[in-house]
Amino acid sequence: MRFPRASTLAAAVLSLLFASNIVAAPLAGRALVDVLRELEAAGLRLIYDSDLVPPGLRVVTEPRSTRPRAILDSILRDHQLKATRGPCGALRIVTDPAARTGGGTAGGSTPSPVMPTTLAEIVVTPSQFKLLSGEPEQRQFLSREDVRNLPHLADDLYRAIGRIPGAAGSDVTARFSIRGGEEDEVEVVLDGAEIRDPFHVRDLLRAFSIIDSEAVGAVEILTGGFPAQYGGRMSGVIDIASVTPSKRTTEIGISLLNTRLLSLGTFDEQRGQWLFSLRRGYLRELLRLVDEGAEELNPNYYDLMGKVQRQIGDRHVLSVSVLGARDKLGIDEGVSTRASASYDDSYVWLNLRSSVSPRLSTQNVVSYARLSRERGGNYGTVRSRERGALADSRSFSNASLKSDSTFSVSDRNVLKAGLNVKRMDARYDYKAAATIRNSLFNLNRPDITLSRRADLVLSGSDIAAYVADRIRLTDRVIVEAGIRLDKQSYTPDDGHVSPRLNVLFLHSDRTVLRAALGRFFQPQALDELQVEDGVTRFFPAQRSDHLLVGVDQQLRGGFTIRLEAYQKALSDLRPRFENLFDRLTIFPELRPDRTRVSPSSGKSRGVELLIRHGSGGPLSGWMSYTRSSVTDRVDGVDTPRSWDQRDAIGFSANYRRGERWNFNLAGLYHSGFPTTRVVGTFINRKLGAVVGPMNAARFPAYHRVDLRVSRHLATSVGGFGFFVELFNVLNQENVTRVDGYDFTIDQSTGVVVSEAREMSVVGILPSFGVTYQF
């Protein structure tokens, strides 16, 4: 694989607006409280007592760095204060005993160690990535500036997350699998509330997430071995915290794929904050990326996110949040095809975060969600090879109460415990019928007919509890052991017990080793009944046993290296349904290539290497390499999953020219995804077809380079920016699917030559956008 130099691509148009620095004016002499509030607007979540940070304190020394976390450390140091890890991803401001005794460092002249020294700050779990937050560089994969600069279609947060090592996905969808798991094996949490399948147009593309990245303050991603407070999914966790504003700001953006409005500010002398985000999107251009003939398909979507937060005294913060999304998909190709679909998601929740005492902190979340989906229409005519009709109406509601507590027994021992209770209701009203004649799967054979119907009203409960204890055994060894219990009322199995163990060994100030061992269950949710494929019963929970080891090494010159190895043993897997060829189609359950996969077990293993460089200069970047495999045991044979990618390489090279211009070149390479071949036959002068072993062949290797350039201009009342981006700038024809087979028959020998019609994603996709902030 060869990637061209950035200079050879400079003639092509490039990409993106990024926001101005959070703190542009001089800070020295300003009130410390005011600067802390501005840093909260940059994404830091801070907890501090007004007695510790009174209004009279001023910033003494002008910070040299422009990074929010580095600014925080600098302005606190002069007042003998420091920031330590607090509850729910927040930073707690406390006194610094080392500074009071003269043990602190001045001016940041000593490199920061890989691991902080306070127990509450230490990241024990391996396979953890941070985005957007102001956490120290060595544990943060992408900063807010990195995400803004990185090429990612429609500025979608999930497309930036999809670049983490171990993630596998396709161009046209923002959804991805983590370390071989299915796409639905990731738990998503927003400000303490669980968000289910947060994507637009879920039955077709899942092209974008429903969460505006500019409304996000921090993202924590765990790709394995996660602690006991997380449950219900067995591959990963995406824990998102919305931004906390410190001043009033409004931002309007228009791009090729969406229009957006973001407004945030404070009230009641900055004891309260509010946030509102509204987006309208259009997917026509992305669909042309998939299929040049997709002129009739033009889905529209909307999403909104809002939060009002108020500090209550010095110990409590109460927030009210809403999240909503609406999609409409319509197709009309005359008498042959008519289809429509709509999706409505609504969430509302209360979150009370409390610092009950210096040792005890809690978070209590009460939430309600309602999701509905309507699909309907028909395709084909009486003379078509395929014809069918479908009417699908379903809804799901979920009311939950979640409570999490953290108690510091001592400087060497921290206890965590929690309880989560859910009440769920679901309704399914589904009916479909189809006739398939003379397809690859029944050439010169009788027609295939399908008829399915389900009319169900279901309800159930889900209860989970956990407890964990983090202990510093020695100055170099920390252990966190936990156990989680889950029970669903509507599934056929009993409760599940999930033990978890994480161990950290600090070899030196620059070298940290981490290991994790744990069991993870994924019960089938009440809204995941597979009625579209004729399944009307729930299966027992799936199970995944994780074993992970990793090392973080900080080098000189701004380089860090992270190496991890993992193994996952999969068992109690429930059947899944896939389309062997075209996986992005209307009514996929009625297509002839629909296949049931019933594995008895599975295994996933791999090694990931991540190298980063970020010295604070104009040049920065990272590169990752993953060697992995994931297989299912089907009928006694180890079969690769459809998203198995043996080798994967990703990189990002960023050049910042002054404070206005930024250039980013990013690339991706991975082994071709598996595919199933079809072999033609010619028996008794009749042409037939036989489907070969599932996923026994592979597409050619995939490689893509994206380019993005952005510029920001400050104005007297705000800032103006624009970006231009080229997706697949090398116009690479990456094969993504098979659209059918051509058969050639040698009449003398009867040998049939089968040739797949491989389809590629359309080449270069330009994108652009402008943003005005005031």
| Oligomeric status | single chain
Query: What is the β-strand count?
Result: 42
Relative strand content: over 45%
Shape: globular
Low-pLDDT stretches are 1-24, 100-117
Report the average pLDDT across residues. 85
**Major sheet:** 22 strands, antiparallel, barrel
Q: Please bin the fraction of helical residues.
A: under 10%
Tell me the span between the first and last alpha carbons: 45 Å
How many helix segments? Answer: 7
Structural class: mainly beta
Rounded Rg:
27 Å
Task: Please characterize this protein's 3D structure.
The protein is 6% helix and 53% strand. The chain contains seven helices and 42 strands. The protein has a 22-stranded antiparallel barrel. It has a six-stranded mixed beta sheet with strand order 5-4-10-11-8-9. The protein has a three-stranded mixed beta sheet with strand order 1-3-2. The model is unreliable at 1-24 and 100-117 (pLDDT under 50).
